[in-house]
Design goal:
Layout lengths: L1 H19 L3 E10 L10 E4 L5 E3 L5 E7 L6 E5 L6 E4 L9 E3 L6 H7 L7 H10 L1 H4 L5 E12 L4 E13 L6 H4 L1 E12 L6 H11 L18 H16 L1 H6 L19 H4 E11 L2 E10 L16 E10 L5 E10 L2 H11 L3 E12 L2 E13 L13 H6 L2 H4 L1 E13 L2 H7 L16 H4 L9 H18 L1
Parallel strand pairs: 1-7
Antiparallel strand pairs: 1-4, 2-3, 2-5, 5-6, 8-9, 8-17, 9-10, 11-12, 12-13, 13-14, 14-15, 15-16, 16-17
Helix pairs in contact: 6-7
Length: about 475
């Protein structure tokens, strides 16, 4: 036991030393399209041959902390369809914008010479799926990352969480539901100013968890007779089933990692639910890649979510696949209501037909593709509407105002460190892992000094400042 404790403290000390023992070089700037002068969103900014990096926000801006030991290494700024910008970290100019020029390869030339290669979008995607076992990590690894969780209605932010997380994955060949672990290490911000009035969440929680068979309806529940603790418990349950990290990592929307699972979206019947059309050939950091359109096929897409009608969708989006090894670089994927039942449900409950929007980019490290950035957006049911023939007072009507009622959540994850050392991984697995991002944790100012985070857009920053001010007033 004494040896185990010593090792744990040794690893903890090493971690602290790596975090605080080295000075940092801060690089920050704005990335712009040379021809149009439009900011480039989701560009990759990273130190060559490392996993130290970030992505640009919707304003094209970014900020990155680079350990001093990498000051002489090359900083790369790249975006699909553009020529890369490369410069030593020590020579980077924080005062001058970065202009990227378009870089498009010739698709016609590639098709003419590629006699033995797949030529259609479907063939290329099937080849990429076949090569997942070679291109994705085949052994255990740990990733460190930053999570931002936002929930808002059409007017303002209602909830914000920012955390440092650790993800353990045993490799592509194993089931993520059995072996993938997530831990919330630290919390930077936690503002929750949602109104505790979700009768709908209470009814859903009761109907799925109560032992009795009778089912409640929202109209059967008198809000004034419910305890706040009952609503809080139901809301937390609803938060986890809709936005828990297990959904993002262990569920069907982890398209590549979980393609071996039964009924996977990118599994054996991928062409029954999706069709893929080759659009063009682009360039990413001097490498050619296919741009492939995702569209509907013969069957609807469904997520089989327990307790939620998550069926009846069609898929839209894009796949970006490297030409040389068929590794998938980026996924842009959304599920749109298509069945009659889902169209009605989505419009009535969410005021939108797009129910799930996912963006995942991957980074190549030691010849394997690791998740680098994840963006996930989904509408969230907070309250159901009311019928105009019902007798309701003005206060009740305000609760169901469209601007206030329709919520959606956004989760962004930036991974900035990959750990492959088996000794460190095995020691980490001996600790308790807790994936609950919704439980507040103490704030550690020193931890966040050198930790890479996602830079907010100017619009989001204003909304976050407003939320933090309202949170302060609420505490007072």
């Amino acid at each position: 036991m004494g040896i185990k404790i010593t090792k744990k403290y040794l690893i903890f000390a090493i971690t602290l030393f790596s975090l605080f023992g080295y000075s940092q070089t801060e690089v920050k700037n704005k990335i712009v399209d040379f021809g149009t002068l439009i900011p480039i969103e989701s560009a990759s900014i990273y130190v060559k041959n490392t996993t130290i990096g970030t992505v640009s926000n919707s304003d094209g801006k970014f900020i990155l902390q680079v350990p001093q030991e990498f000051s002489n290494d090359t900083l790369i700024v790249s975006s699909i369809g553009y020529k890369s910008f490369k410069i030593p970290v020590s020579e980077f100019d924080n005062a001058a914008d970065i202009y990227l020029e378009e870089d498009v390869a010739s698709l016609d030339e590639i098709i003419l010479i590629a006699k033995t290669r797949p030529k259609t979008g479907n063939e290329i995607v099937l080849k990429a799926i076949e090569r997942l076992s070679e291109n994705l990590p085949d052994s255990a690894y740990i990733q460190k990352g930053f999570l931002r969780h936002k929930e808002r209605n059409k007017i303002e932010f209602k909830w914000l969480i920012e955390s440092a997380i650790t993800v353990y994955d045993s490799g592509y060949g194993s089931k993520s539901s059995d072996y993938l672990k997530i831990n919330v290490d630290q919390m930077r911000k936690s503002y929750d100013l949602r109104d505790v009035d979700s009768v709908f969440s209470y009814v859903s929680y009761n109907n799925q968890n109560a032992k009795r068979r009778s089912r409640l309806k929202p109209k059967d529940v008198d809000r004034s007779k419910l305890k706040t603790s009952q609503l809080v418990k139901a809301i937390k349950w609803n938060d986890n089933r809709v936005n828990g990290l297990q959904n993002l990592f262990q569920g069907k929307l982890n398209l590549l990692r979980n393609s071996n699972d039964a009924k996977a979206l990118f599994g054996e019947d991928i062409l029954d639910k999706h069709q893929f059309e080759l659009d063009t050939l682009l360039v990413d950091n001097d490498r050619k890649l296919y741009k492939i359109k995702i569209s509907e096929s013969t069957d609807f897409v469904g997520l089989d979510t327990k307790g939620i009608f998550n069926e009846g969708y069609v898929a839209n989006g894009w796949l970006y696949i490297y030409y040389d090894n068929y590794a998938i670089k980026k996924i842009e994927y959304e599920l749109v209501a298509a069945s009659d039942a889902q169209k009605v449900r989505s419009k009535r409950l969410f005021d939108t037909q797009v129910n799930h929007k996912l963006v995942v980019t991957y980074i190549e490290y030691e010849d394997k593709m690791y998740p680098n950035y994840i963006y996930y957006e989904t509408p969230k049911l907070v309250n159901v509407g009311f019928k105009t023939n019902e007798k309701v007072n003005d206060e009740e009507k305000e609760r169901y105002n469209k601007e206030e009622r329709y919520y959606y959540t956004v989760q962004e994850i930036l991974f900035s460190e990959i750990i492959l050392d088996k000794t460190v991984i095995n020691m980490a697995l001996q600790s308790d892992w807790d994936m609950d991002i919704f439980s507040p944790k103490p704030y550690n100012k020193n931890f966040w000094k050198n930790y890479n985070v996602l830079l907010e857009s100017e619009e989001d920053e204003k909304l976050i400042q407003d939320l933090s001010q309202r949170a302060s007033l609420f505490k007072d």
